[in-house]
Amino acid sequence: MPDDARLAVLLAGWCALRMGEVFALRRCDIAADGSTVRIERAVTYREGKFEVGPTKTRESRRVVSVPPHVRPAVVDHLARHVGESDEALVFVEPSTGSFAGEKRFRTAWEAARVAVGQPDLHFHDLRHAGGVLYAHTGATLRELMDWLGHTSPNMAMRYQHTAEGRTAELADKLSALAATNP
């Protein structure tokens, strides 16, 4: 990915953000230390123009904690690619200063997918992977719903996959619990 678009992939994957949420971000939505991202709006591309509107659902408006290993990339991106104004877009089309160009980003995304051997990977798959990883850390269903901005447990359950070896790990934890509380 081009340097000025790399953070979009990191936020989608590690914070489970939707594409429209990522590209609607402004400087004021991100903590200066990169620790949180506030989702308040989304951008869509329709009939050749960008439209900024509300998030997908009311619950999609949320504050997402950025994992510590991603924070340096957030801070670096803000310093090198984002204007000083609180309203400055986090991802911009260099030629216009407006929203990151759909064609430019898609072209880079397609090349990146091929480069990593995943030509069928969709941008939304990053969000799914992020949700699954969050669930695997032990997040409760309610925490997962809040983090993803979901309104129903059924939607959040799509991210509750059993990781290979996870059942054995949980069985070991049960034995450890039994050993301390006979």
Automatic annotation (TrEMBL):
It comes from Mycolicibacterium vanbaalenii. Pfam families: Phage_integrase (PF00589). This is Prophage phiRv2 integrase. It comes from the Bacteria. GO terms for biological process: DNA integration; DNA recombination. GO terms for molecular function: DNA binding. InterPro entries: DNA_brk_join_enz, Integrase-like_cat_sf, Integrase_catalytic, Tyrosine_recombinase_XerCD. Residues 1-172 form the Tyr recombinase domain.
